[in-house]
Write a structure and sequence with these properties.
With 361 residues, the chain is of the alpha/beta class. The protein folds into 2 domains: 271 residues, Spore Coat Polysaccharide Biosynthesis Protein SpsA, Chain A; 70 residues. 48% of the residues lie in helices and 14% in strands. It has 12 helices and 8 strands. The chain has an 8-stranded mixed beta sheet, sandwiched between helices. Helix 6 runs parallel beside helix 9 and helix 10 runs antiparallel to helix 11. The N terminus and C terminus are likely disordered.
């Protein structure tokens, strides 16, 4: 039997993907600000809330909000997979012709979505970045580390990476499909999206303080993001290891000449300090080089394993499609055929689907 087209997905102009992890405190404020903005757009939309294995009442609150907000769609991951993996799950299964990704903490204003969509349509853009023009709400240390991060990635990946652009952006369907076709597992969208080279624009805004809850990007995760950005998008650290090895060779050569000279003049005891420092230096350089090599070998090992980066526990869109299939038609015929499943997964909400299981181009 031929499957009927997914008319709901076809009518969806805008999808808003929101990764969430333990956001029960900020959820009411998020819904109260986001829903009026989307309602005023006058287009078909969906809100794809990706619950990244939350351990608080996030899933319960989402289910309660969905009772009065049918456009709210909930995707629950079976375990906490990380922010970028949750974002991938939302992008993989979003239906919209345009897809906006935004965090739940309200530091990026939902009101800018209207401007993003208008700019993309007016100038036929595939990407619209949200640029943080003012980060006064962040701590001095946060601003300093963020500035250091963007200078580093722009130096490695090129000036196409916009400075002060986080994960608040709009993507066209063509850009989303291009991202889905990439084989990367440990994804950093701040680098992958500019790498596509699609026509892009910018919308600037002031970054607001988080109204409730705690940041999900502490120092440890920020460092991990920086390491993934560097090792996943550039071989420069390996070249740094080569330069360190060359410098260490020159130091060893100088120490060898000094040692031979000291032995010739019978000044062997004073040379102990320089020899000891030289041994420590060479050992440190070797450990740094081995660590850099280990980062790349680890990424190769992960790619060879080809394990899915996330598993879907449930998707309310699949449940809604099943309910619609059971309803009798107006002419009294049996239930209409089931709609096509969302992109990247099965219509069975309980079946695990993942990035690694979809067809790779």
């Amino acid at each position: 039997m031929t499957e009927a087209p997914n008319t709901t997905a076809a009518a969806t102009v805008l999808s808003v993907v929101i990764p969430m992890y333990n956001e029960e405190e900020v959820l009411p404020a998020l819904v109260s600000r986001l829903r009026p903005v989307l309602a005023d757009l006058g287009v078909g939309y969906e809100v794809v809330a990706v619950d990244d294995g939350s351990t608080d009442r996030t899933a319960e609150l989402l289910a309660a909000f969905r009772l009065g907000w049918p456009e709210l769609r909930i995707i629950g991951l079976r375990r906490n997979s990380g922010h970028q993996a949750a974002l991938t799950a939302g992008l993989d299964r979003a239906h919209g012709a345009y897809v906006v990704s935004i965090d739940a903490d309200l530091q990026d204003p939902p009101e800018k979505i209207t401007e993003m969509l208008a700019l993309a349509r007016a100038k036929d853009l595939d990407i619209v970045y949200g640029i943080r023009a003012d980060r006064a709400s962040d701590t001095g240390f946060k601003r300093w580390t963020a500035g250091l991060y963007y200078r580093l990635v722009r130096r490695l990946a090129g000036p196409s990476v916009p400075a002060q652009a986080g994960d608040f952006r709009l993507l066209s369907r063509a850009a989303v499909d291009a991202l889905k076709a990439l084989p990367d597992q440990q994804r950093v969208y701040r680098l992958l999206v500019p790498w596509l080279g699609f026509p892009s624009g910018e919308v600037r805004y002031e970054r607001a303080p988080r109204p409730a809850g705690q940041s999900k990007y502490p120092l440890g995760r920020m460092i991990r993001l920086a390491v993934d950005s560097v090792t996943g998008f550039s071989a420069a650290p390996l070249r740094i290891a080569t330069w360190l090895g060359g410098f260490a060779f020159l130091v060893c050569l100088a120490l060898m000449i000094y040692t031979l000279s000291a032995h010739a003049f019978q000044h062997t005891v004073p040379g102990w300090t320089s020899l000891f420092i030289g041994v420590l230096f060479i050992g440190a350089v070797q450990l740094v080089c081995v660590g850099l090599l280990g980062e790349y070998v680890g990424r190769i090992y992960t790619a060879v394993q080809n394990r899915p980066t996330y598993f879907i526990g449930h998707d309310t869109a699949a449940g809604a499609a099943a309910d619609a299939a059971k309803r009798p038609s107006r002419a009294g015929n049996p239930a209409v055929p089931s709609p096509a499943p969302p992109p990247g997964g099965s219509a069975d909400a309980a079946a695990p689907v993942s990035q690694g299981l979809r067809q790779r181009s």
